[in-house]
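Sequence and structure are kept together here, with a separate record for every protein. A complete record is shown below as an example:
=====
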Amino acid sequence: MLYKYKGMTKTGKSAKGSIEASNMDEAKRKLKSQGIFYENIAPTKEITELNFSKREMSGPQLSSFAKELSSYLSSGMAILT
């Protein structure tokens, strides 16, 4: 599981990011071993856990999105890099 964190290093610099761990305790141990004093640790939602069905587009929004996407693709813009 991926956890996001916010904290400070031993030198007092701000630190934030994400860390892979099987549980919260392991995430805390890993951060401590890296010299990061955490203020906040929270699990992040993985893409598979997100519920996209609740985000509906209206007809005009969908039409606008399709036109913009078509323009990007026609111009040769890469969608995935």
